[in-house]
Design brief:
It is a single chain. The protein is built from 3 helices and 2 strands. By secondary structure, it is α+β, with helices and mostly antiparallel strands. It has a single domain, classed as name from scop (3-Layer(aba) Sandwich). Strands 1-2 form a two-stranded antiparallel ribbon. The longest helix has 25 residues. The chain is globular and about 40 Å long.
Length: about 100
């Protein structure tokens, strides 16, 4: 099976300062698409990364993400938050009270 033939997957995460990230929900196919739709409706970041998705899909719902997977996730999150901070700095607008860690 080619990567683009694989069922669509989604994993919802919550990042807790000092406690890592926890898997809140997972879905495949239509459920994954609905999860993404809800994330967009609530301005929650969506990251598309096949390898990271495969690793996250192995973590049971309710579990904290293991260190090796969290390290890979943290690199991506650092990039996203750095980009956001740069855009906010350019526009002169503060984050409007948003905590990016809660947007996962």
């Amino acid at each position: 099976m080619k990567d683009n033939d694989a069922p669509h997957k989604a994993t919802a995460l919550r990042l807790n300062a000092g406690q890592g990230a926890k898997v809140l929900a997972q879905g495949k196919g239509e459920l994954a698409l609905r999860m993404e739709q809800l994330a967009r409706e609530h301005d929650i970041h969506i990251l598309q990364d096949f390898a990271l998705s495969q690793n996250l899909s192995r973590v049971p719902v309710g579990d904290v993400i293991p260190d090796p997977v969290f390290r890979a996730l943290s690199v991506v999150l650092d990039f996203i938050f750095t980009q956001e901070a740069g855009l906010q700095e350019l526009s002169g607008s503060p984050a409007a009270g948003k905590n990016p860690a809660q947007e996962l």
